[in-house]
Write a structure and sequence with these properties.
Strand order of the largest sheet: 5-4-3-6-7
Largest sheet: 5 strands, mixed
CATH architecture: 3-Layer(aba) Sandwich
Distance between the termini: 42 Å
CATH superfamily: Glutaredoxin
Radius of gyration: 18 Å
Order of helices and strands: HEEHEHEHEHEEH
Number of domains: 1
CATH topology: Glutaredoxin
Shape: globular
Protein backbone atom coordinates (compact mmCIF):
# COMPACT_ATOMS: atom_id res chain seq x y z
CA UNK A 1 0.00 0.00 0.00
CA UNK A 2 2.84 2.43 0.71
CA UNK A 3 4.12 1.96 -2.85
CA UNK A 4 0.72 2.92 -4.21
CA UNK A 5 0.62 6.05 -2.01
CA UNK A 6 4.12 7.03 -3.12
CA UNK A 7 3.16 6.62 -6.79
CA UNK A 8 -0.03 8.62 -6.29
CA UNK A 9 1.90 11.40 -4.54
CA UNK A 10 4.54 11.51 -7.29
CA UNK A 11 1.83 11.54 -9.96
CA UNK A 12 0.10 14.43 -8.14
CA UNK A 13 3.37 16.38 -8.00
CA UNK A 14 3.98 15.72 -11.70
CA UNK A 15 0.49 16.98 -12.59
CA UNK A 16 1.05 20.15 -10.51
CA UNK A 17 4.38 20.79 -12.25
CA UNK A 18 2.82 20.30 -15.69
CA UNK A 19 -0.05 22.66 -14.86
CA UNK A 20 2.38 25.28 -13.48
CA UNK A 21 4.54 25.07 -16.62
CA UNK A 22 1.45 25.39 -18.86
CA UNK A 23 0.28 28.51 -17.02
CA UNK A 24 3.79 29.98 -17.11
CA UNK A 25 4.09 29.36 -20.86
CA UNK A 26 0.68 30.90 -21.51
CA UNK A 27 1.68 33.93 -19.45
CA UNK A 28 5.01 34.33 -21.27
CA UNK A 29 3.69 33.66 -24.78
CA UNK A 30 0.25 35.18 -24.33
CA UNK A 31 -0.86 38.14 -26.40
CA UNK A 32 -1.36 41.62 -25.01
CA UNK A 33 -4.50 43.41 -26.09
CA UNK A 34 -3.76 46.79 -27.70
CA UNK A 35 -5.38 49.93 -26.32
CA UNK A 36 -8.93 50.45 -27.59
CA UNK A 37 -8.90 47.05 -29.31
CA UNK A 38 -12.65 46.68 -28.84
CA UNK A 39 -13.56 49.62 -31.06
CA UNK A 40 -11.11 48.90 -33.89
CA UNK A 41 -13.10 48.05 -37.05
CA UNK A 42 -12.27 44.68 -38.56
CA UNK A 43 -13.37 43.45 -41.98
CA UNK A 44 -14.42 39.85 -42.54
CA UNK A 45 -13.65 38.05 -45.80
CA UNK A 46 -17.33 38.48 -46.68
CA UNK A 47 -16.89 42.28 -46.49
CA UNK A 48 -18.85 42.84 -43.27
CA UNK A 49 -17.26 45.26 -40.77
CA UNK A 50 -17.38 44.37 -37.07
CA UNK A 51 -15.74 45.30 -33.78
CA UNK A 52 -14.66 42.99 -30.97
CA UNK A 53 -16.66 45.05 -28.49
CA UNK A 54 -19.95 44.53 -30.33
CA UNK A 55 -19.17 40.85 -31.02
CA UNK A 56 -18.51 40.15 -27.32
CA UNK A 57 -21.45 42.06 -25.79
CA UNK A 58 -24.07 39.29 -25.73
CA UNK A 59 -21.77 36.33 -25.03
CA UNK A 60 -18.05 35.59 -24.80
CA UNK A 61 -16.13 35.67 -28.07
CA UNK A 62 -13.32 33.32 -29.08
CA UNK A 63 -10.73 35.13 -31.21
CA UNK A 64 -8.53 32.56 -32.93
CA UNK A 65 -5.20 33.67 -34.45
CA UNK A 66 -4.05 31.03 -36.96
CA UNK A 67 -2.15 30.55 -40.21
CA UNK A 68 -2.41 28.27 -43.23
CA UNK A 69 1.28 27.38 -42.81
CA UNK A 70 0.96 26.46 -39.10
CA UNK A 71 1.15 22.72 -38.42
CA UNK A 72 -0.70 22.85 -35.08
CA UNK A 73 -3.38 25.07 -36.65
CA UNK A 74 -4.18 22.26 -39.07
CA UNK A 75 -5.35 20.27 -36.03
CA UNK A 76 -7.17 23.09 -34.20
CA UNK A 77 -8.84 24.93 -37.09
CA UNK A 78 -11.42 22.18 -37.80
CA UNK A 79 -12.43 22.29 -34.11
CA UNK A 80 -12.79 26.08 -34.19
CA UNK A 81 -14.85 25.77 -37.39
CA UNK A 82 -17.06 23.11 -35.75
CA UNK A 83 -17.61 25.44 -32.81
CA UNK A 84 -18.57 28.25 -35.22
CA UNK A 85 -20.92 25.98 -37.18
CA UNK A 86 -22.68 25.04 -33.93
CA UNK A 87 -23.39 28.70 -33.31
CA UNK A 88 -20.39 29.45 -31.11
CA UNK A 89 -19.28 33.07 -30.99
CA UNK A 90 -16.05 32.77 -32.98
CA UNK A 91 -13.85 35.13 -34.97
CA UNK A 92 -10.65 33.96 -36.61
CA UNK A 93 -7.67 35.98 -37.79
CA UNK A 94 -5.61 34.47 -40.63
CA UNK A 95 -2.04 35.57 -39.94
CA UNK A 96 0.30 36.07 -42.92
CA UNK A 97 -1.55 33.48 -44.98
CA UNK A 98 -1.82 35.33 -48.28
CA UNK A 99 -4.50 37.39 -49.93
CA UNK A 100 -8.23 36.86 -49.51
CA UNK A 101 -8.46 34.62 -52.58
CA UNK A 102 -5.78 32.30 -51.24
CA UNK A 103 -7.46 32.07 -47.85
CA UNK A 104 -10.86 31.36 -49.42
CA UNK A 105 -9.27 28.59 -51.52
CA UNK A 106 -7.60 27.11 -48.44
CA UNK A 107 -10.84 27.14 -46.45
CA UNK A 108 -12.82 25.64 -49.35
CA UNK A 109 -10.25 22.87 -49.88
CA UNK A 110 -10.44 21.96 -46.18
CA UNK A 111 -14.26 22.38 -46.12
CA UNK A 112 -13.98 24.96 -43.33
CA UNK A 113 -16.56 27.69 -42.73
CA UNK A 114 -15.98 30.32 -40.05
CA UNK A 115 -15.73 34.11 -39.83
CA UNK A 116 -12.25 35.17 -40.94
CA UNK A 117 -10.37 38.47 -40.79
CA UNK A 118 -7.37 38.47 -43.11
CA UNK A 119 -4.13 39.78 -41.61
CA UNK A 120 -1.84 39.41 -44.65
CA UNK A 121 1.10 41.41 -43.29
CA UNK A 122 0.65 40.41 -39.65
CA UNK A 123 -0.15 43.99 -38.57
CA UNK A 124 -3.20 43.10 -36.48
CA UNK A 125 -1.37 40.17 -34.89
CA UNK A 126 1.60 42.43 -34.13
CA UNK A 127 -0.73 44.90 -32.37
CA UNK A 128 -1.83 41.99 -30.16
CA UNK A 129 1.78 40.82 -29.71
CA UNK A 130 0.88 37.38 -31.06
CA UNK A 131 4.13 35.45 -31.33
CA UNK A 132 2.77 31.89 -31.45
CA UNK A 133 0.15 30.23 -33.62
CA UNK A 134 -2.39 29.17 -32.79
CA UNK A 135 -3.37 31.74 -30.17
CA UNK A 136 -6.79 31.79 -28.53
CA UNK A 137 -8.21 34.90 -26.85
CA UNK A 138 -11.54 34.94 -25.01
CA UNK A 139 -13.21 38.36 -24.84
CA UNK A 140 -16.32 39.10 -22.82
CA UNK A 141 -18.02 42.50 -23.04
CA UNK A 142 -14.92 44.05 -24.57
CA UNK A 143 -12.56 42.67 -21.90
CA UNK A 144 -9.92 39.95 -22.39
CA UNK A 145 -10.69 37.23 -19.85
CA UNK A 146 -8.50 34.37 -21.05
CA UNK A 147 -5.65 33.60 -23.43
CA UNK A 148 -3.83 30.45 -24.38
CA UNK A 149 -1.44 29.37 -27.10
CA UNK A 150 -0.69 26.11 -28.86
CA UNK A 151 -2.94 23.11 -29.23
CA UNK A 152 -6.31 23.26 -27.51
CA UNK A 153 -9.09 20.73 -27.84
CA UNK A 154 -12.65 21.43 -28.97
CA UNK A 155 -13.85 20.78 -25.41
CA UNK A 156 -11.12 23.05 -24.04
CA UNK A 157 -12.37 25.90 -26.21
CA UNK A 158 -15.98 25.22 -25.25
CA UNK A 159 -15.06 25.10 -21.56
CA UNK A 160 -13.17 28.40 -21.77
CA UNK A 161 -16.13 30.09 -23.46
CA UNK A 162 -18.52 28.63 -20.90
CA UNK A 163 -16.29 29.70 -17.99
CA UNK A 164 -15.96 33.24 -19.40
CA UNK A 165 -19.74 33.57 -19.24
CA UNK A 166 -19.63 33.54 -15.42
Amino acid sequence: MTKLKRWARELGILVLIIVAVMFAMDFLRGPQAPANFGSQPLQLLEGQKITLLEQSQQRPLLVYFWATWCGVCKMTTPDVAALAEEGGNVLSVALRSGDEVKIRQYLAAKNIAMPVVNDPLGELSAQWDVGVTPTFVIIDKGRVVSTTTGWTSYWGMKARLWWAGF
